[in-house]
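2024-03-11 09:14:02 INFO worker-7 job=invfold-0412 stage=load source=structure_tokens
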């Protein structure tokens, strides 16, 4: 009986992946198309210069890291709206630990620990009290944002430790930004976890059919707890990267990032309903948003025009992917 139920869980997952294959392919084409368009139209403005391309990587690193973790959360059929606020608070707690004299290790423990603690709270409320993750994380988003504003009275906390700033944002190893190394390292780890381990299969099974996954022996509550801890961890790290790059902790870091993070994940091919996830697609989705932002800024458009065009491009890309799915 147990084997039969497991087959029922596993088989739909395979068919869903096949259905979404065209959608992922179209998103990759959209990314290449956007890149080619800006390369041609903004060639004289230096869009294709090494410096500008590396700047896009720096600008999207924090979004990419949080999006990697969000891929697991959305793959389970849940969502986390608190990542931006967690990043802001983590940047402040890390900066305060450094300012107090606890050193780089103390700053890292404070920043990442802040993210893990909030991720734990989110996970407990979702799994133990059965509160919808949308409502839980919407609430913690506001509470954490308020806390970040309160603990320093909205004042920034400067970081004068040059080693911390080098490691967590502003440093370059030769021509390679440290932020690119952080991004590649965690992208590889996330891809292996999702595609090559039993944990990844359980994540997808939980999102694909939670009831059937339970009957097949998957501890879905444990899986959901772990993915929320994951988003807390990565948001905490993103906060440290914000602080290292800007040489300060600020309550305003991460403002609105939750929308960019979710857009990158969905744009990359992860199903909002759960059951299908792709780390590579998430990275491409994040880079696509970064390229669009960078290109529109170079074109000299004001903020309102950038928001309109960026939104239309994202909607069009996702719509084309969904059209391919229905064929």
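2024-03-11 09:14:09 INFO worker-7 stage=emit residues=327
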């Amino acid at each position: 009986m147990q084997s039969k139920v497991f087959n029922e869980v596993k088989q739909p997952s395979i068919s869903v992946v096949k259905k979404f294959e065209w959608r992922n392919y179209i998103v990759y084409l959209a990314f290449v198309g956007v890149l080619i368009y800006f390369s041609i139209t903004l060639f004289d403005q230096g869009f294709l210069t090494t410096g500008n391309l590396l700047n896009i990587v720096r600008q999207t690193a924090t979004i990419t890291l949080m999006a990697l973790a969000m891929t697991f959360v959305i793959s389970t059929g849940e969502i986390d709206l608190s990542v931006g606020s967690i990043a802001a608070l983590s940047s402040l707690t890390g900066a305060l630990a450094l300012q107090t004299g606890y050193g780089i290790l103390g700053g890292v423990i404070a920043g990442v620990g802040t993210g893990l603690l909030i991720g734990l709270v989110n996970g407990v409320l979702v799994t133990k009290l059965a509160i919808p993750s949308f409502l839980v994380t919407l609430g913690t988003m506001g509470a954490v944002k308020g806390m970040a504003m309160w603990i320093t009275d909205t004042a920034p906390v400067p970081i004068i430790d040059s080693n911390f700033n080098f490691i967590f944002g502003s440093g370059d190893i030769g021509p390679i930004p440290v932020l690119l190394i952080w991004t590649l390292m965690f992208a590889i780890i996330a891809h292996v976890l999702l595609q090559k381990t039993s944990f990844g299969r359980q994540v997808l099974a939980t999102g694909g059919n939670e009831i059937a996954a339970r009957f097949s022996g998957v501890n879905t509550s444990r899986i959901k707890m772990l993915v929320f801890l994951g988003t807390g961890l990565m948001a905490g790290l993103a906060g440290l990267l914000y602080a290292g790059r800007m040489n300060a902790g600020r309550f305003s870091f991460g403002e609105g990032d939750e929308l960019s993070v979710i857009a990158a994940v969905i744009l990359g091919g992860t199903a909002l309903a759960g059951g299908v996830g792709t780390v590579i697609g998430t990275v491409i989705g994040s880079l696509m948003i970064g390229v669009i932002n960078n290109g529109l800024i170079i074109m000299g458009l004001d903020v309102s025009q950038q928001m309109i065009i960026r939104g239309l491009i994202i909607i069009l890309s996702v719509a084309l992917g969904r059209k391919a799915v229905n064929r």
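2024-03-11 09:14:09 INFO worker-7 stage=report msg="The chain is about 75% helix and 0% strand."
2024-03-11 09:14:10 INFO worker-7 job finished
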